[in-house]
Write a structure and sequence with these properties.
This protein has six helices and eight strands; from the N terminus they run βαααβββββααβαβ. By secondary structure, it is of the alpha/beta class. The longest helix is centred in the C-terminal third of the chain and has 15 residues, at 139-153. It is globular, with a radius of gyration of 15 Å.
Length: 168
């Protein structure tokens, strides 16, 4: 079963993000982390067409031409000066998506995803998909606990309207 948690918990998950959860749910038999040790690229490839149907542009490969560059800073004459790569971006819903696998928690990749999404222009929502378990560690729950702490403490104000964590 796909698990998800939307933050802030005081708000209902928006329809456009519920649709993202549905795409992952439809592909569960092929991406279930309890059954498979897929790379993040393998999982992204499985959900790519469904996300594209929702208006996302999805990274096709690690080649520079295939990467999704989301602007961060603009220089002289509006030239793109700094950007971060994303696994997917929907400019209409202003949503960036990152699919992680083994290093989501082990290497704190989810924190890098959060930081980068907060720096990106025209981004209101962040989706991070992680394994439910990785090497017997509850990655999904560990990420949820982190975001629970972040939101409950109230000490850090994020420029995002919402964050969706999906456990596959």
């Amino acid at each position: 079963m796909i698990k998800f948690q939307y933050f802030p918990k005081s708000k209902a998950i928006p329809d456009h993000l519920q649709n993202v959860v549905s795409i992952f749910s439809q592909k569960l038999e092929k991406i279930n982390s309890g059954n498979f040790q897929h790379s993040s690229n393998d999982v992204l490839n499985e959900v790519a067409s469904g996300l594209e149907n929702l208006g996302f542009t999805i990274e096709k490969s690690k080649k520079n031409a295939d990467k999704i560059k989301v602007p961060v800073l603009f220089g002289i004459n509006g030239k793109l000066e700094k950007y971060f790569d994303a696994d997917g971006f929907n400019p209409i819903t202003r949503t960036v998506i990152e699919v992680e696998a083994g290093r989501a928690v082990t290497n704190y990749q989810f924190l890098k995803d959060l930081f980068q999404a907060c720096m990106m222009t025209d981004v209101d929502y962040l989706v991070i998909a992680v394994r439910v378990t990785y090497r017997k560690n509850p990655d999904f729950q560990n990420v949820i606990t982190f975001f629970d702490t972040l939101f409950v403490s109230g000490r850090l104000k994020l420029p995002l309207k919402g964050i969706l964590i999906i456990g596959y």
